[in-house]
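Researcher: I'd like a structural prediction for the single chain below. Treat it as a standalone chain; there are no partners to consider.
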Amino acid sequence: MTAAAADTRSEKPDDTPADGRTEARTRRGGRWIEHWDPEDEGFWRETGERIARRNLAFSVLSEHIGFSIWSLWSVMVLFMGPEYGIDPAGKFFLVAMPTLVGGVLRVPYTFAVARFGGRNWTVLSATMLLVPTAVAAVVMEPGTSYTTFLLVAAVAGVGGGNFASSMTNINAFYPLRKKGWALGLNAGGGNIGVPVIQLLGLLVIGTAGAAHPRIVLAVYVPLIVLAAVLAALFMDNLAPVTNDTGAALDAAREPHTWVMSLLYIGTFGSFIGYSFAFGLVLQNQFARTPLQAASLTFIGPLLGSLVRPVGGRLADRFGGARITLGNFVAMGLATGVVIYASGTRSLPVFLVGFIALFVLTGLGNGSTYKMIPGIFQAQALRRGLVGEAAAVYGRRLSGAAMGLIGAVGALGGLAINLAFRQSFLVAGSGTPAFVSFLVWYVVCGAVTWGVYLRPAVRGRRRSQASDEADGSDGVEAAAVDGERGPVYAEV
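Model: Treating it as a single chain, here is the predicted structure.
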């Protein structure tokens, strides 16, 4: 499709924006871009890149605030002194509730973009963040029942759903060659909402004291309104991104969706789980006060968020599978340092190892998400599709898969908090939990190598019929007889 063909001719041509943004006809109550072909380099250079960057910027803002609200209770528990009557195990379970709900919501949020439009859904999902913020302000005081706290914390899970819709939306805006960087930047900007709210909590505790958690909530109300208004004014809907239940079913039947889900548990599940639990581990294992814990908890999530785009960029250059494998090896080494420090109660060594883990989770988040569109683009080529047809197939399946993979990865954060809860109940420390995490990273590294990088002797490309007959997915590139090489390194 040419750049000229990509322009939408609206019913009112005189209203066409001066910046070249495609104006859309009225459809389901919003503005829509009717044609979008980022793989066409002419279209991308003349029109698409400018539009995509603008949508990316305001998507990052909304997702950033969504992550802050999702991680709200990792901050609220630092304000909960003995007068609240909640033990450490209860607090770990409390911060796990938004993780659970947010992970589940990521599936419907993925398809909301196609149903309502990326711009429209961003406005609505941002506005919904007012609910958990306002309700938390009402109940945040001693004497509130633990059940009430659990229910209110669960409502904050709506912030976790924002990630899935935002990533699906931005995935559709960018060409394959740019997805690693764009998705990494979008996700990293969102992830950084975790340390930002933790820094705000530190500021409030350090100035007003631990008796004033409502100040944190009051700051976010106008920010939520601002994000919704800016999304309404400056974002666009893409008409080619249509609701396709069949895509979800196809993605769910694809083994690579579940392989990537497992890997994403290791990266993003670790990031969000550690982000929620870090302050509680410092308080309960190293006897830090709320202020001392708050002064340290933001460092790891901040660094992990900042390096996520770097992971995507490295994956663009060297291949997501290679970067992901090296990352899991490094995560295993960092976890070994944490286990040693946890056993010896050495806070400085613990911080070095744990912050290194955060950085590595960020790199791994970027590299794993880059792999997803690469896998489905490769499958499109295997089916004989070329050009825009291959790009449409890749966007369709990768968009659906991202929702499932993001949901499962977020539930990994729930598993981490539950592992910490059980570890402190049984052993009084986080050491057993860290040992279990080390085992998981070893498994993830082995799977990455075995599925995507294992050297194999490759013959000439077989026919599609023979691939299907023996159960092979046939994504490997054509090769000369006897050539050895990793069959999925390009993803």
